[in-house]
């Protein structure tokens, strides 16, 4: 299940067309109902205009949906670069937890599109953007799972967001703030806000990551 996903290519007819084509993509988390997907995307559109008002390209990751636009054609182009990670406190010497976590991550690595997995008290889900091929999705998730293990180690809950996929896991009933660690600070404006807890009906509107590409001069 790829989630509700749409790709857009728009040609702007103008007497001054330095960049006449605009590419866009939006996608909701695969388990969202249509009404929640619509509400999430409305929020994403409103927020991306506020966060990146004068950008040639921008992307915004909410808890429940993703939105991106750019003058460069990014559709179908593999991107496994790390955009954002969050790791909770560590679980020390809990062999059973590590086993269950690895079972979940191994299962998520085989996802094609969106997948939910659980083992014992550990749960997780993963998703690729719908413009990826099955092989590119598998490759992206393999990198995401590897990053989760290497960057978050023994964390009780963790999430890794790459350019075109993400993977998350948590101990059942886990409810706490995750420590942010935004990666790759450069000349692109970046705003990060962290989920403080899952509140029914509100989580899909929490901003996880936004990236703005400033116009070239």
TrEMBL record:
Membrane topology summary: Single-pass type I membrane protein
Main location, first listed in the record: other
Subcellular location: Cell junction, Plasmodesma; Cell membrane
Pfam families on file: Stress-antifung (PF01657)
Keyword list, A-Z: Cell junction, Disulfide bond, Host-virus interaction, Membrane, Repeat, Signal, Transmembrane, Transmembrane helix
Gene3D superfamilies associated with the record: Gnk2 domain, C-X8-C-X2-C motif (3.30.430.20)
Regions that span the bilayer: 192-212
Residue span(s) of domain Gnk2-homologous: 1-74, 75-174
InterPro entries for this protein: Cell2Cell_Antifungal, GNK2, GNK2_sf
Origin: domain of life: Eukaryota
UniProt signal peptide: none
Family: Belongs to the cysteine-rich repeat secretory protein family. Plasmodesmata-located proteins (PDLD) subfamily.
Name used for this protein in its record: Gnk2-homologous domain-containing protein
Taxonomic classification: Eukaryota, Viridiplantae, Streptophyta, Embryophyta, Tracheophyta
């Amino acid at each position: 299940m790829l989630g509700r996903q749409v790709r857009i290519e728009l040609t702007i007819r103008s007497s001054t067309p330095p960049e006449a084509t605009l590419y866009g993509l939006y996608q909701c988390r695969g388990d969202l109902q249509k009404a929640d997907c619509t509400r999430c995307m409305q929020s994403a559109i409103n927020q991306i205009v506020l966060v990146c008002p004068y950008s040639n390209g921008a992307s915004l990751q909410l808890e429940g949906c993703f939105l991106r636009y750019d003058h460069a054609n990014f559709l179908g182009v593999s991107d496994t670069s790390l955009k954002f990670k969050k790791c909770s406190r560590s679980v020390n010497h809990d062999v059973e937890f590590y086993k269950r976590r690895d079972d979940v991550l191994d299962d998520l690595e085989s996802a094609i599109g969106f997948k939910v997995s659980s083992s014992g008290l550990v749960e997780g889900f993963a998703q690729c953007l719908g413009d990826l091929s099955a092989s590119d999705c598998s490759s992206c998730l393999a990198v995401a799972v590897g990053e989760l293990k290497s960057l978050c180690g023994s964390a009780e809950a963790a999430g890794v967001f790459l350019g075109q996929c993400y993977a998350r896991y948590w101990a059942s009933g886990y409810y706490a703030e995750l420590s942010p660690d935004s990666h790759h600070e450069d000349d692109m404006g970046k705003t990060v806000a962290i989920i403080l807890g899952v509140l029914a009906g509100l989580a899909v509107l929490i901003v996880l990551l936004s990236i703005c590409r400033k116009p070239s001069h």
